[in-house]
Design a protein that fits this description.
By secondary structure, the protein is α/β, with parallel strands linked by helices. The protein is 38% helix and 18% strand. The strands form 2 sheets. It has a 4-stranded mixed beta sheet. Strands 1-3-2 form a 3-stranded mixed beta sheet. Bound molecules: iron/sulfur cluster.
Length: 215
């Protein structure tokens, strides 16, 4: 008979494998193509994802919704936006009647949308040349919260700046600075960013007191 623990492991690995299938494919060597997801999130995280990645652990099936919709291409093909010799590549979850829709998972009902989701949605509106966009947050118990947005040029200029910064840092092989946010607690690089390695040297108490025997 299967125990509770086995079921949890099976579900965990199923979420992990489906999640991998649905991930946006990023060619880590092609630094002239920057993906919108990389610059909407912490640049340091995106840098590590390309240079020295750790696996990311997903929490539930609702986190897969956005990837599923993208994969099924609900009216949206990925699109590119040229920034000098760099290509910024984005993909929306859904295009309905000239409006862009994004779907995101949430732990509880939100009062305001997440900053990186607003950056992502706004940039999509410029890349796809649309003026309206909507973010739908869905919780594990199927509650929905919807926010609508009108596009903003200044915010898109900030994305363009971040594209250039990430491209430069990848060229120079320099790690971006920390961008502390609520995402850090769920980030696979938390330890790399916030825990210093202990410089411990094996020393005996006698050695420290200079009383060790010499043969
Ligand atoms: S822990 Fe925070 S600062 Fe470090 S890479 Fe992750 S999101 Fe960025």
């Amino acid at each position: 008979m299967m125990g509770d623990r086995d079921f949890r492991n099976i579900i965990h690995s199923a979420i992990g494998s489906i999640g991998k299938e649905l991930e946006i494919e990023i060619d880590s060597k092609d630094i002239q193509t920057i993906h919108l997801q990389e610059v909407a999130q912490c640049l340091r995280r995106s840098y590590y994802d390309r240079i020295d990645p750790n696996e990311f652990e997903r929490r539930g099936f609702n986190e897969l919704l956005s990837g599923l919709l993208r994969k099924l291409q609900y009216g949206s093909e990925p699109k590119e936006f040229a920034i000098d010799d760099i290509k910024l590549k984005g993909q929306v979850d859904m295009l309905v009647d000239d409006s862009i829709l994004l779907f995101r998972s949430a732990i509880g009902e939100l009062e305001t949308p997440q900053a990186n989701d607003i950056l992502y949605l706004n940039a999509c509106m410029w890349i796809y040349d649309k003026v309206d966009g909507v973010i739908v947050y869905i919780t594990g118990d199927r509650k929905e919260t919807t926010f609508s947005l009108t596009r903003n040029k200044k915010m898109f200029e900030e994305i363009i700046r971040r594209v250039r910064v990430l491209n430069d840092l990848l060229k120079e092989q320099k790690t971006p600075i920390l961008e502390p946010s609520s995402d850090c607690s769920n980030c696979q690089y938390y330890e790399r960013c916030f825990m210093k390695k202990k410089l411990s040297k094996q020393m005996s108490l006698l050695g420290m007191l200079g009383m060790e025997k010499s043969d």
